[in-house]
Amino acid sequence: MTGWRAGIAGLLLAVTLGLASTARAGTTQPADLLLRHAGTHRLIVLGEMHGTREIPPLVGEVAERLSSEGPLLLALEIHASEQASLRSYLDGDGSDAQRDLLRRRPFWSVPQQRNDGRRSEDMLDLVERMRQLRADGRDVAILAYDVANGGGPDGDWRERAMAAQLRHAFQALPRGRMLVLTGNVHAMRLRPAWAPELMQVPMTADLLDLQPVSIEIAAASGAFWACPPDGCRPLHIAVVPPAGALPPGEPFDHRIVLPAFSVARPVEPADAATSH
């Protein structure tokens, strides 16, 4: 694990532990809340804790509803080298053999001790849901926008490069919406005052001229999968952050708080998956 990656994992823990301990109760469904907060923004950035079972289906539901209104580009924090394989899958029939081809790709076939939570069967289910929408005639696509699995020549190289990838795709989208799923640090509109010295200016801060809305997805309990300095493993939610619209100066515009996170299902080795 690079020092940069370990530092971000530590920051994720700090974000979880350092926020207030109250959440607004309510019965509104999470997808309804996300869409309400998104409003008419064409660029919607969702900040997640990687490695949960709950966020991929929630994003899939939001994508389905947005795509009923017009074109939708779903941008995922997947290495850009996977773009061709994702495009082929979306144009395919969703067979077990095609899903196994994805599982064998370098991005997905990472040992658990190096899996930071972005690779799971739940994320593959999200890709499959987008394929189904496309097969039903929806104008949808997936953008793989990550450029590295760690740092670069400069400390903020990855943040700037991912922002450039998103900017280029957004500017090439004449109408419709772009829905971005990313780690909650990347989704921040600004570098918060309490951020540790190692934290660079977040990716979304480089896109403010595109008028994004940034929405963090948190949970009141449960666990997610991440990579703190002592190794990749489930991390438990310790403190519940406040939900709703956030005041000026906060790194997100809005936050929704789900009842609980549960740890995502690891990507099964392709040979094991095909034997089921």
What is the structure about, briefly put?
The chain is of the alpha/beta class and about 280 residues long. The chain has eight helices and nine strands. It has one domain (about 5-265): Rossmann fold (3-Layer(aba) Sandwich).
What do you see in this structure?
This protein has helices at 3-18, 30-38, 55-67, 83-90, 96-103, 121-135, 157-171, 270-274, and strands at 43-48, 72-79, 140-146, 177-183, 213-219, 223-226, 233-236, 244-245, 254-258. With 276 residues, it is an alpha/beta fold. The protein has one domain (3-265): 3-Layer(aba) Sandwich (Rossmann fold). The strands form 2 sheets. It has a 7-stranded mixed β-sheet with strand order 3-2-4-1-5-9-8, with helices on both faces. Strand 8 and strand 9 (254-258) form a beta hairpin.
- Low-confidence parts: 1-26, 150-154, 272-276
CATH-defined fold name: Rossmann fold
Cα distance, first to last residue? 33 Å
What is the chain-wise order of helices and strands? HHEHEHHHEHEEEEEEH
Gross morphology is globular
Q: How many β-strands, per DSSP?
A: 9
